[in-house]
Fold:
Amino acid sequence: MKFFLPLRHGLATAARRPKLILLVYLLSLLPAAVVALLAYFDMAGLMNDSLFAGLALAGERMAVWNDYQRADASGFGMVNQAALILAGFAVLLHILTAAGVVEALLHREHERERPFLLGIGRHGWRFTRSAIWFGIALVPLLVVVGASFGGINKLAEAQMDGRVHLAGWLAVLVVSMLIYMFLDLGYDLSRIAAATHDEGRTLFGYVKAFFHALRHPLILAPFWLLLSLLVVGLHLAYVAGRAAVQPENLLHVALVLLVQQVVFLVAAFLRVALWSGEIAYYQAAGEPRWCGKRQKPEQVDQDHSAAEDTEREWGPEPEPEAVAAPVIEPEAVAAPVIEPEPDSEPSTETERENENENETWDRRPDLGSTDPPGV
Structure:
């Protein structure tokens, strides 16, 4: 199986699920809407009731918002105070969205009503535990990357060569991206396995899925890199274009907002395509049960004792009656008839005595005869 097969399946499936893409897009806007709402109330408390202030709050003076964002005095006061809560909310929303998307894309034997909400309710806690293991796995990677950047900066300063600095940063970025790719693939595949078989051994499932991804890099790596780099490149292009454009009126603001929403919508499409492709690969791999529980010896003994108790209470199970096989009688074989040879002489002395006795008995007179003698 080559990498373009899950890629093609993922893109085709995402194109057939516009409602799911729209739902992912709307959920991705919630954290941004909360941040914008907090910034609005924070900024409204600092402005007077002038016409210019009203236009700025309505979004027609983007320069005011940019200056407010960069100001040290305000610094998005309410937003910064709730930054940790907002970050946790965004991460939790991302996890629950993934649970709903996976359940909606899985092929089940029976039809389900509202599979997205069903997936959130059934797999939300499992996916949250998987996110914890994924975060723990990222900690050493972040520590190594930070230490590598520090060492490269010192080396570049010592040699006074900017090329060393650039080459070192690029090498660290490439290696760290590859490591992150396999960590993320194990994260996604373990969640798919847990949702497919409705199993919750997420830590062992994550480890097994991670090593599975390491053993199949030629299939998973190009597929993941292509879609992920498309998402990252799309956002970087928007940020670069947005920094070069300064909206001056409401029409410019509307155009910037439209472009921004198109970017988020395309990103939602690519996210659904990535999930669909990974599910197709997992199903083609045989749907391994990475998150299943092993049966412990104590559980086996308990099952055996329970069977013995049942036998003592209800008696042994009746054995099936044996079906008698049909009896096939052999055909009677007639014994050969041996006729005595005529005028054969007695062969033994005992036979001669028996023969003389018979002759003597025949010559005796018939005592039971009533005829007179001589008749």
About this structure: Residues 334 and 340 are 18 Å apart (CA to CA).
